[in-house]
Each structure stands twice: as C-alpha cells, then as structure tokens.
C-alpha cells in the first residue's frame, strides 16, 4: 500500500465581491496517497513554488461571463501556476523525478489528472523563475511585446504596472531593442526599481499624479508608439489621448477593474480612429508554440546579466493567502512567489 501523508491546502471559502481578503481563504490539512491510480494519465506532484497572479482574482467570482478560464470552486483548493517535482506518474510524458512547471494546486501535494505541465528545460537557473521570467509571465511579456506590438527600434513605449511580473520584462525587452521606455507604478520604491535597476528611461508614481494626461505629456511630448496595458480604467483613457498615429496597444490585463462590481467606462476610444491605433487583447496560451524560441532568446540574456528579474518571495503555504491579496494593494515589489518546499 502506498504511503499516506498529510497535505496542507489553501481553500477558497466563498465567492468574493470587491477586494479579496485573507479570510476569503483558509488553510487546512487533508491526507493524500503518494501514488497515482493505475491506468490513469495523471501525475503526482510535490509543489515547490506557487505563483500569485492578478488573473486569479476574477476566478474568485462566480460565473465569469465571457471568461477564458473557469472560476475556482468554494471548498476546494485554489489552483494556479507553479513549479513542482514529479513523485509518481502514469503519464507517458512525465516520469518520477522530473521537474515541471504549469497548473497545479495550492497545496503541498497535487494529483493532476489532466496535466497542463511543461518540463523544466534549464535547471541551472533558480527554479522559482519558472513561475515568472521563464514561465507564464515571461511568455506573456514576450508574446505581447514582440508578436502583438510589432516593435521597432527607437519607438516610445509605455508600460503600466511596470514593476510587476510581466511589466518589468516588457520594459527590459524594449530597452534591448533600443526603445525609449517609461513605466508607471504605485510607490516610490517601485519607481526607483524601474529607473535604477531595470533600466527604464523614466517612471512615475501614478498615485502622486493628479492628472495622468499631464504626466504622459511630460514623459512623451511626441506621443506614445506602444502601450502595454496592464491596468485599464483612467490610465487607459489617458494613454488614448497620447497615442501616436499608427500606435499599438497590447491589452494584457486590467488590474484596476478586477475588484469592481461594475467596470469603469472608457471615454476616449474615438482616438483609435483618428490616430489609426491598433488595440488588441491576447492570451499567452495562443503563443505556447513559441516557448522554445522564447527560451533561445531569454536564457543567454539571463546568464549574461542583460536581463534581471525581481521576485518577492513569501515563505510557506500559510503565507499564500496574504501574498495573493497583497497583489491588489500593491504590497509586492516584483513578481510575487510563494515558496512551499525545497526540492
């Protein structure tokens, strides 16, 4: 008989309205058998790192109309991107001992019956990177910037939520291409990070700007070629007033809207017509086929120090609810990761 062990889990208590709270989740312990049922195609994972991502907030809401991903189910563990080690497998794609990244449960051990997992191709970089720069956020930045925005050398690029998991990479990709890059963030520490460590040409704290349009005119007197959209709402409205003719907007996320019962309206969409701006939403899953190409580009830059990645690590599964909730008040500095266990 296979070994039974205790399994700590983060459970969603109820569907959420407004800003999420730590008390919307709770940590409990169950038992799990360290064996995959014979004849299944499942894998048993020991979770090492879990990723806190803004898209998880809408999943705390029931019946998300038009969503690309299902809601969490109250009473069950939350799930999201993570890094794990395979303890047992009945799936021909994975074997015991493999390191993988992809969708897993917010728990110490996960039995995944329909794996959406990728093997870790480079173990000579921090494994936590596969929750960020080498995982979903990294591919999101790569696909959104290079594929959706079609950037050219010397263009003017603006990134909102620029110190987050995706934004910090988009800015560095743009600098590698020789673009002029400005980011917005929500604290002095984040602005300092963008300018002094990540190489942005300019940055501003949107909370200290009474007039976002004036702030953008100050930073982009000639206008914006590319806007990488992570925020929505008033920021999007202000950027629309400052786009150049033929500009491109990649809509990656709208974190300012996730906790609202009714979304803010956008008032300046007529500028898309007069400035011939292309505004396009995208899902990273549509670009998974480019992952090998992405790795070929990014790994040398990581090892050579041309690209840096800033993580904010919370220790232990018990810290996961606070870490996730903290995303929506801007508590994190860099990519929010939860370290669950060592390999």
Summarize the structure.
This protein has 343 residues and is of the alpha/beta class. It has helices at residues 136-148, 167-176, 188-196, 212-219, 233-240, 271-274, 291-304, 320-326; strands spanning 4-12, 25-33, 43-51, 79-89, 99-105, 109-112, 117-119, 156-159, 180-185, 202-205, 224-229, 243-251, 278-281, 311-315, 335-339.
Q: Kindly report the average pLDDT value.
A: 95
Subunit organisation of the chains: single chain
In angstroms, what is the radius of gyration?
21 Å
Measured by DSSP, the beta-strand proportion falls in 25-35%
Low-confidence region ranges? none
How would the blueprint of this fold be written?
Elements: E1 4-12, E2 25-33, E3 43-51, E4 79-89, E5 99-105, E6 109-112, E7 117-119, H1 136-148, E8 156-159, H2 167-176, E9 180-185, H3 188-196, E10 202-205, H4 212-219, E11 224-229, H5 233-240, E12 243-251, H6 271-274, E13 278-281, H7 291-304, E14 311-315, H8 320-326, E15 335-339
Parallel strand pairs: 8-9, 8-11, 9-10, 11-12, 12-13, 14-15
Antiparallel strand pairs: 1-2, 3-4, 3-6, 3-15, 4-5, 5-7
Helix pairs in contact: 1-2
Notes on the protein architecture:
The chain is α/β, with parallel strands linked by helices. It contains eight helices and 15 strands. Helix 2 links the parallel strand 8 (156-159) and strand 9 (180-185). Helix 1 packs across helix 2 (167-176). The chain is globular and about 70 Å long. It starts with a strand and ends with a strand.
